[in-house]
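Reproducibility note. Readers wishing to regenerate the assembly model reported in the main text can use the exact inputs given here. Chain order matters: entities are listed in the order in which they were concatenated for prediction.
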Amino acid sequence: MTNGLLKRAALTALLATSALVPAYMAHAEDEAAAGAKIIVTYKDDIATLDPAIGYDWQNWSMINAMFSRLVDYPAGTSVIKPSLAESYTVSDDGKTYTFKLHTDVKFTNGRPLVASDVKYSIERTINPKTQSPGASFYHSIVGYDAMVGGKADALDGVKVIDDHTVEFTLTQPDATFLNDLALNFASIVPKEAVEAAGGDFGKKPIGSGAFTLKEWTVGQRLVFEKNPDYFVKGRPRIDGYTVEIGQEPLVALLRLQKGEIDIAGDGIPPAKYLEMKNSKDFEGMIVDRQQLETSYVTLNTQVKPFDNVKVRQAVNMAINKDRIVRIINGRAVPANQVLPPMMPGYDKDYKGYPYDVEKAKALLADAGLKDGFSTELYTSNTDPQPRIAQAIQQDLAAIGIKAEIKSLANPNVIAAGGTQGQAAMVWSGGLGWIADYPDPSDFYGPILSCGSAVAGGWNWSWYCNKDMEPRAQAADALPLPAKAEERNAQWGKIFTEIQEKDAPWIPVFNERRVVAKSKRMGGEDQIYIDPTRVIDYDAIYVKK
Amino acid sequence: MAFVVARRLIQAFLILLGVAAITFLLLYALPADPAVLIAGRSATPQMVANVRHELGLDQPLVMQFLHYLGGLAEGDLGRSYTQRTAVLPLILARLPATLILMAAGILVEVVLGLTFGIIAAVRRGGFVDRTVMMLSFVGVSSPQFVVALLLLYVFAAKLGWFPMSGFGTFGHIVLPATTLGVLGAGWYARMVRSAMIDVLNHDYVRTARAKGLSGRRVIFRHVLPNAILPIIAMVGIDIGQFMSGVVVVEAVYGWPGIGQLAWQAIQQVDVPIIMGVTLVSAFAIVVGNLLADVIAPFIDPRIRAQ
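Running the prediction on these inputs yields the following structure tokens for the assembly.
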């Protein structure tokens, strides 16, 4: 383990350095009650448990705990470790990854898991027929383009060497490839079960993870039971969990208070947050942690007058972020740059644009807009987003900008942002960018790169800086973990420069995530708000 | 009679076809592109195009609609975009819960409405009448989500008489059905009261009284049957009303019906589910009105004579 890797772990997991993890686990082992079952509630239906499809924060945790992947993160950390793979090697050029699989792993239908299952599962995620929202994570595997283009049914870049060895070949070194393999989309599924389900694998899932799906009553509950043959010893630490669906967050909190449930998955509605946080009744029941998230306003670099960098810098100086954080009862910290503070590459020394109304006015005058202008601000219509948009609107009015608020349902905001020349400004709250894994490249490729400035894309600033593209590629080619520090430094510079020179965003705040749990639930906060899993069902337990 | 039913069935079919066409057009006029939402935030244009092709969204609108109608004829409501499974089973799995809730809600409103309406009519002008009418006014004016949360807080959270949320036992249905019924009960009480007062002023009631019939017999034998007709027509209309009302009530009480399904689908632009729930609701409203029309002649000979 290199120094760089240790530093990265410390940064990303905040409290849990890799040295501390085994200690707390050993401690926790003693106080877990045997045979416990818990109840978790959510408001919305669980859409699907198909690992190639599921991509919302309710089903993400459940899928994660039902399936296994070649590599994974130990509880509460962001350091990749072998999982289904016993070990792996990376070639010197960083283009070939060879994984040795455990020999004793079985799917919960009883069949042993072999290397051809790995090939099948990755191909299934990339296959256009699957319509997986995660397919593009695997773009660096040889043969990806042919498969997405419909010219091939198999991936040349995944080879089955023998029953327990599988080899991946990439078109170029990709530092985040192991992170990609730890995502749910790379979960290993048994072909025969997928085919038997006839398109309904998401309702009849079979994996090799810590839990199996015992019962699913549509609209009411999902019952998960411990997989007795799970290959990770000592996991999971509960015998099962039931997810109850259709529970209003406020009702869930009342039930939590009465001890009827163990985890209120939707957290605490913003309006109740301060009241509960200060209430004696809820002491020790609220988990409140930073996550890898930035909420921002995109400034459309192709729409007048935001095509002028001075205007973008001016509005950056016009926003009172402290006041906005107060609007959401302090559930966030003000942001000054693209990356969130827990992300490697975050620049502690960069101060961003100050809140300075006079300077903002001067910059506008410089741009020839002394009298201001009229524009539009798009926002999601669920509370508290419209209130935040109003605060931004007032701040803009103070420098003479009249912003009309367009408050729409989420899918319509996404559509407006992804339409060329339409949305001058979009407030990203409620749709904000939460990183898939703790790597800074995740904040560039999909939301700030030239490739993402396309119709239907998420680069709502329509920002494209040709000078940045080769630098981003160079940083991405630096292999992990050997060059982690250099890589993070390069990425950090890229994001600081984008914001300082081009200002395509107003970074507003980094939101915290809140989960409420019963007093009998044990374990550190980070397994309830895990950086990569949300709730870590493998690791949570009930106290004796 | 058979002719009337046949005519109404043809009308029902045309109404459903119209509902399907209008919903389809409205949903496709939305700016949100389901293919973009499905393909995920990192998708390239090629991948979005792939998804669009898989869903058949790259075909002309008319073809898409005909294709949808073709599916309907075979009882296929299409596949959900988000849940990636057939829509019909999703709706059928949730429909019983909604029907049970509606039936219970109607029962509550009819029982409460009749009881209070009769009491108010008999004691009209007095203290009881005024109290009942004031309460009914409160019932009619209360937003359902407020009533729902209030009942939940008092009877489930504080007193613990009923479970807070969920489905399965008799206890689970009391609060949601009461919430649904309170609103209608206010209307019913007022309707019953005025219909009764109207009938009470008729000559035959005076005759019945003059014959020496007891007050109770006059009310239940002569007044109520004549005053109840508008109530039956209202129940038919209520089925439609409740289809929209259940959305709020189902959400607050975690009741696993189609209202919840529709609400979630709308937020996610899951067109096939929205279409399916709309069609099933329209079907329920048509059937409800049809039933009210068919039943009325059996209760009132005057309509039969027409």
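We highlight two features of this model. Residues 91 and 97 of chain A are 7 Å apart (CA to CA). Chain A has 16 helices and 21 strands.
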